[in-house]
Write a structure and sequence with these properties.
The chain is α/β, with parallel strands linked by helices and 427 residues long. Helices cover 31% and strands 21% of the residues. It has one domain: L-arginine/glycine Amidinotransferase, Chain A (5-stranded Propeller).
Length: 427
């Protein structure tokens, strides 16, 4: 398994199908800010990073279509469901016992006011399928509360790890609501036979005070990475990541200092590579030197350097591409109108997933972005179009985009790239 490009033909991937966990969060979980006893607005510790309640059946159907598309490219056995991996490792009682203890400790620390203080026996005595569901939903099918909250963000498998060259880099979330996801992921990847010959870096074990999620790590080409300095990480975290990148033979890392806001939570919310020549990008990042009032600074870090060794440049990404020898065509998220740019960036217009160079999945709701893709030669396919003859489309030399139905999936602020964890691409 190896990833040395965002756009090499997809060979193997992990996805997580929305499940019962999406039935188990409530209106108190969808407000980022709430009033305290004095009427002052404070961060809601129980915010689950979704901006609305979702229809569990529709979100499952939408995700099921995405999974079927990637499965048609990788073959079914190489589109791996996270729940299957989790269920497999829970057959081992020692692994299960250690996982329960670590998740209980994390939950008690993260949510002391909601911690159910449940007996671990309920998980130890369950069959693997029931235990897996309970880890994800927070509730046992008997109705007993086992964890404080469910894990609706598990669908965004991009954030739980990143394949960097031949190394599986186990990431770590900043927000408490995602830490059980990271514990489950670490345990799966470290113990499942599928990964026994994979070089694994456990970021949290090596750097317990740091956070870095996969949405901020972009393998631009075989020598170059782009990394977002976002609200979800820090300079210390990125410096801690550099040895992994350089040990895998990447020579240059461009670090983009982003606004520290939910609108731009990760680099891939405003920028994705979709072909040898094309990037899909939120226009202010491409042509401007300021984003949401925040100056855009770019650090170029070469092998052996750290952030402290270089001075950032206040510049646009267009200038970065030009000055470093990249011949790039920018396709504008939302088109040329600033209102549409902002609206479609919010609904993940800049976050596409490449099945192969020039063959991508994007959300159907971002119609201005799709118009821009059409203007530069991308055929716009419905799901029905694609499934009428997937082999023909996958083997063609034409560029195309599948416009994925997207009524519920964007409510967690994640696009097709966020929903996917590639493990292997043709390099």
């Amino acid at each position: 398994m190896s990833i040395r490009s965002e756009i090499g033909k997809l060979q193997k991937i992990v996805v997580h199908r929305p499940g019962a966990e999406h039935h188990h969060f409530t209106p108190e979980n969808i407000h980022e800010w709430i009033p305290d006893a004095n009427g002052q607005m404070v961060l809601n510790p129980d915010y689950l990073l979704f901006d609305d309640l979702v229809d569990p059946n529709i979100i499952a159907d939408e995700h099921g279509t995405l999974a079927a598309i990637v499965s048609s490219v990788t073959d079914p056995e190489n589109t791996i469901l996270f729940t299957d991996l989790l269920t497999d490792i829970l057959q081992d009682d020692l692994i299960r016992s250690d996982l329960i203890a670590e998740c209980f400790e994390s939950d008690k620390k993260s949510f002391p006011d909601h911690y159910p203080n449940c007996s671990p026996n309920i998980l130890m005595d369950s069959n693997p399928e029931t235990a897996a569901e309970t880890f994800l939903t927070g509730k046992h099918p008997s109705g007993a509360a086992v964890f404080s909250w469910p894990l609706p963000n598990m669908i965004f498998t991009r954030d739980i790890a990143a394949m960097v060259g031949d190394t599986l880099f186990l990431t770590w979330a900043k927000r408490n609501v995602r830490k059980r996801e990271m514990i489950l992921s670490k345990t799966v990847f470290s113990n499942h036979p599928h990964f026994k010959n994979t070089n694994i870096v456990d970021f949290h074990k090596d750097h317990p005070g740091c956070a870095l999620e996969g949405g901020d790590i972009m393998i631009f080409d075989s020598k170059t990475l782009f990394v977002g300095l976002s609200e979800r990480n820090s300079k210390k975290s990125i410096d801690a990541f550099m040895p992994t990148a350089f040990s895998e033979g990447f020579e240059t890392v461009f670090v983009i200092d982003l606004p520290k806001s939910r609108t731009v939570m990760h680099l891939d919310t405003i920028f994705t590579r979709i072909s040898e020549t094309d990037v899909l990008i939120y226009p202010p990042l491409y042509s401007g030197t300021e984003l949401k009032g925040h100056p855009i600074s770019v650090y170029r870090i070469d092998t052996g350097q750290s952030l402290a060794d270089v001075k950032p440049s206040r510049t646009s990404l267009e200038t970065v591409f030009r000055d470093n020898g990249f011949s790039i065509n920018a396709i504008l998220c939302g088109g040329t109108d600033s209102v549409h740019q902002d609206r479609e960036q919010w609904t993940d217009g800049a976050n596409a997933f490449a099945l192969d160079s020039g063959k991508i999945i994007s959300y159907s709701r971002n119609i201005k972005t799709l118009e821009e893709l059409r203007k530069v030669g991308y055929s716009i396919l419905t799901e029905k179009d694609y499934f009428s003859n997937p082999d023909s489309y996958n083997q063609s030399n034409e560029n195309w985009v599948i416009s994925l139905a997207s009524h519920e999936l964007p409510r967690g602020r994640g696009g097709p790239r966020c929903l996917t964890l590639p493990l292997d691409r043709k390099n």
